[in-house]
Queue: 2 jobs
Job 1
Amino acid sequence: MRKRFGAFEAVRGIDVDVARGEVFGFLGPNGAGKSSTMRMIACVSPRSGGELQVLGMDPATDGPRIRARIGVVPQLDNLDQELTVRQNLEVYGRYFGLSRAHVRAKATELLEFVQLADRADDEVEPLSGGMKRRLTIARALVNDPELLLLDEPTTGLDPQARHLLWERLYRLKREGVTQIITTHYMDEAEQLCDRLVVMDGGLIVAEGSPAELIERYSTREVLELRFPTGAAPPAEALAPHADRVEALPDRLLLYTADGEHAQAAVASAGHRPLSALVRRSTLEDVFLRLTGRSLVE
Amino acid sequence: MTATEVRARSTGRDPGPVRGVLLVVEHAWVWYRRNWRATAVSSILQPLLFLLAFGVGFGSLVEGGEGVAAATGGPSYLVWLAPALLAVSAAQTGVFESTYPVLSGFKWQRHYHGMTAGPVSPAQVALGHLAWVALKIAGCGAVYVGVIAVFGGVASAGIVVSLAAAVLTGVAVAAPVTAYSATLESEGAAFSVLFRFVVIPMTLFSGTFFPIDRLPGWVQPLAWVSPLWHGTEIARAAALDRWQPWAALGHAAYLLALLVLGAVLAARLYTRRLQP
């Protein structure tokens, strides 16, 4: 599947299958082509080439019928700010051909689900970012979607709001709602996704479960070393103590199965870092390995 | 993968071509019931001021003069002016409702993006907007007719047809303005240029306050392209019972053509913007 905007090719040919009930992620930095991909799946952006099936239908011919059965949480909130919280759900639900009685009952249920029942009759505009996000998710669920698309669902939220959101998305997963998520947060991808692809420059560079990807592209542990400015040894000097060494502007990363052992080896070789930290590998390391760049700059 | 259950069929369905448009109108009505005060000044108070200033104030100044009788062809200035004021108010509402509120849907609140994430298409959103503008003009116009009647400006039941002509005028103006607003990335000076160089001249030189044959010959063609002049001619003919069938048909055809052209253009531009 491809997407061109004039001379610029945002999605340069990707091939994925998402099974029903699965939570699938697109992980990548800004500009990787994640949002363009999501817009094609959401049937609001015609593809420039290739094939695409959503719920067994073709967006090019069945756009409205597909959109009736999916839920979309966009990157930027697009709530009706001058309506109440409850009205946003009811008005939106009506667009899905649902009766007034149905959307009224559904709105009550969803406001409980996203913990906004006590704000039901307040206008949307003064709500916090986290509350607006939760309302956007509730709105995306008003038609009991079979597939939920979430584009950068927690960008800009504080940690507490993020965890609340993740918990709700996990509940939806248990209810069997298929989810496709884009994110540039590796912890989000690790928390939520059964399976994911790493995108860079409009292409897929790796595919698998978070654990598989870490196992395939990284080591079990990582030793992070910080040195005084200008006093860091060259990466080659540390290479004998690890499987692989990455030099970042502010620190050196030593990829190894046993971080503590590597730390001891580095010390006995006479290196004196300011700080040393042993941690487990994350998707961030996978991304660094695959692209040579950090995920969040 | 270990998902034990898979969510059953969604409750959502495509509401269909006509119902989709009506649901956009319903959305606007829900908004209006909550926020009508925000637009009450432009849609109710401003027409009332026009009526007081020109119909009652200015009218009393010119009433009885031979020039006025010659221009109105008999009835009082207020009676002659009233149907034209209906059309002016409709055109102004049509323009206003299709500027800031439309740009807000795309740009500020972005709720157009939310609406079209569901089964409703951008074209349905555009047509629903125009249908809502027509309804709003009809509602405000009906109130206006009542107020004009209180001041003694209504001569016959023909004013009901005048109101219909005013609605057609308003929505015929709204359609191309909606299309224009759909092309704007930001407000900039676009709307103030539109108000100053299109709406105000149109209000002044469309035969509202005086017949256009009182203008120099070279200015008159300006009135002929003005949708408000065409609407005013129908509205006035209906209120004063001075029908000239072919002329009325011609005026209505001009307004209908503008409406259809504008609506088609708006539907396309909404689609291009919301589903690129």
Job 2
Amino acid sequence: MNGYHGRFLKVDLSTQKTEDMPLSEEDLKDFIGGAGLSAKLIYEHVKTGTDPLAPESPLVFAVGPFTGSTIPMVSRYSVCAISPLTGYWGEATSGGRFPVRLKGSGYDGIFITGKAQNPVYLLVRDGHAEIKDASTLWGKDSYETQEFIKNETGDQVSIACIAKAGENRLLYSCIMNDKGRAAGRSGMGAVMGSKNLKAVVVGGNAKTTAADPERLKELTLEAQTVIRSDMTAKGLTEYGTNMWMDMGMIMADVPAKYFTRSVFPASRLTSTAFRNAYAMGRYACTGCLIGCGREVKNFGPDKKSVDGPEYETVAAFGPLCWNFDLDSIIEANHLCNVHGLDTLSTGVSIAYAMYLAEKGVLTPEKAGLEIKWGDRETIIQLVKLIVNQEGIGKLLGLGTLRMAHELGRDEGEAAQVKGLEMPMHDARSFHGQAISYATGSRGACHQRGNYYEIDIAGMILEYGVMATNRFSAEEQKAVMAAKVQALKDTFDSLTMCKFASVSPTFLAQALSAVTGREYTPETLLEAGERSINIKRGISLKLGLTQAEDRLPEICATPLKEGSSADKVPDMKRLLKDYYEFRQWNLETGKPEKEKLEALGLHQVARDLYGT
Amino acid sequence: MKVKAIFYGILSEWVDEKEAEFELPEEATHGHLLKEIGLRFGSKMPERLWDRMKNDFCAPVLARTSTGTVQSGNSPLVENEQVTFLLMVGGG
């Protein structure tokens, strides 16, 4: 089977049983791999009322057909489950070396159910799996855990693990791998914690074949040339993802003071500001030509090298909290990495607490401390309280939607979609971004709906996607946003880094060369749509309603400053156009039966519409 | 010679035009075009985008012609050339 091993490892932690799980040719053709294939495998295990943290709830790690091949920037993996944060479909991705080693272990993914009686870790190497005791690891942080396991198993493995946040099933805890790489969003760490699974450890040198190795060689060279000559890629190499900070502020794209401001002293937080203040190192995932990752050297006597921070994190602990102190941003990011917290949900929840404190809701008496905008000590203290689930940290650890519920506040104040906190690209500055957030499979997601890139200067010729007025709902904006979402979803099925500036034509040719099946840009787009629709089917089973495809009021209230002043997305128009294109019902939010049948999602059609 | 500058994507918002035509001397270079862009639009663009002293974009802006990416200010232009300017910047 070209491009694949043709099997997942199936693990039942309750019975401690592991076995091969063969993959069908048809599923691989239709869902490709990664998150799309995971959704297909998870679908039948989801029932109305399924508890995301119940033993029977599956957790899936998956790579794609490109992983382990010569194509650059394909060391990515997806980790998927029902999200404990949102209660709906959840997924996160990460890079590093783990994905290549997962493929090298002889499997295309790992499908985990059950709950171990005591803490365990899973070791998968050279086609063999072992469930090993991790009692002594429980309570260790993510760096200690990785070091301990490497000492036990040898260096030639990669480790994806949880730390205190995941062990305590904190709703937005993440999974850390290869030191400071994070599968950050939607609480996948809590799902691991609920299974008493401390780590997944992978290694081995198993290879898959390519259907047309000569063509793959040509395409690899082509991709290398394209990526190396891409100016954005060069910028990412030079400055990291935080290159966005000052240009983003000019575009009013960087949210500030909990989504109520867009103008702030951005020059204090740029990559250059970081470089002037610290010795910065660079990190690249296996096979990456860019190396967007950053490390801060000699941050403190006991911190010789600290991973990150990336743009999203700088923005979340920075301007969103009205904080312009670099030390505290680095420290907050490091604490999140050490203890396994999503920096985005953490930063947004802290900023919400600051907003509530200003409104007199979270008084010092109620919060147990005085919460002030931009106070570096407060930010660090709140991160620690969240990690330890102490005091006000218990409330903040619930995420913004539950915080609003607990405090009896209007839901529209909670900066989230479907329970997932907003990323650091303001929906008012790019209205294609607004519809992407409102309809994202996992909630507010910039990874699969990074539409700002299109309206700055992007184009996808194959799909007729062009830059248009960023504040307009006209000119097919919602349709183009839907296509971009589908394409980016396919990146997570392939599992390929979204910073790889390759075209859909390239992706189709490469997938054809690897698998031997004929793909076109159109069939890739269809695969993205199929993936989005099956994820939608999962969330609908779990109770998702159409009303949840919306922006929270706090992120849709006109700003009074900056380049997006007085501009708000026309959500009614955007949603109408989006639904029409997707063939989703505007009242129920369900995909139309005909659409599901056309995508081959017959079981989803039966579940939603009966036989 | 006549040369057309196309401001793609968000650049058109700052310049307030999607495209503009320029009459340049024979044997004009890309540098000449930038100078004219500066004269006509420089004051409209934010400082972080346009360097008024150097008469050039200071943010990563790509200039493309029918033959490929413009490499420097000395690159020659030809009659009826269309130069597309794109802001190249990415976020996390």
